[in-house]
Amino acid sequence: MDNLGHLALLLAAAFAAGALNAVAGGGSFLTLPALVFTGVPPVVANATGTVALLPGYMAGAWGFKDDMQSPPGLSMKQVIALSLMGGSAGAALLLFTPDATFRKVVPWLLLAATAMFAFGPQLRVWASGKNASNAAPNATKAAIGMLIVAVYGGYFNGGLGILLLALFCLLGQTQLNAMNGMKNLVSALLTVIAVAIYAVGGIVQWEQALVMMVAATLGGYLGARVARKIPAHILRWCIVATGLVMAGLFFAKG
Hints:
The chain is mainly alpha-helical. It has helices at 4-23, 28-37, 42-63, 76-95, 99-118, 120-132, 139-155, 160-171, 176-201, 206-227, 232-253. Helix content is 80%, strand content 0%. Helix 3 (42-63) packs across helix 10.
């Protein structure tokens, strides 16, 4: 990275992404566009940004280790296996996605992730209501749902946390700490396996990834303290606005 302006942009984006992920999620709304706008091809940018945010996911999983509890219909071993299987499939799919195709898909993925983030609370309420009218979840349907979400996370993890929380609600999980613990665990597993596949596929720019990793970790530790002072609804809509702007920019570039 010879361009100091590009370096500053990547550091700032990673720092802010780490803080956002620690508080509310949405960090990929910043890292992916920042990498693309500094000249990194879209597929490589997606992989590199995922590597950069890995420490935050792992730290979050560790922080909730005492609260983790598998959702009804799935055992912990099944959740782990499905997460790794789906994450592998999604990451492999990314490897075979041409940059031109991914560039066209990215704005739509950003829009979908932004919508999931914006309407996350309503989505979780809807999922809880659906579950209230049902008996114990069907194990096969639970496994299919977990696998689909895992494939999405391995391919493009924007909005993954909202999808996971909604899925766990739908399956009948009600303890928020347990849900957050499982969300962080699945996110970490997906990211680890995806990073391994991205690395084997040679689509990670390690110089950018390692620099951003340090900034994202620092942002998660320091930035979250400041972000917690911002009212939740304001923070949420700032993230939504960021997602919409980034999607618009990608549409314009496409």
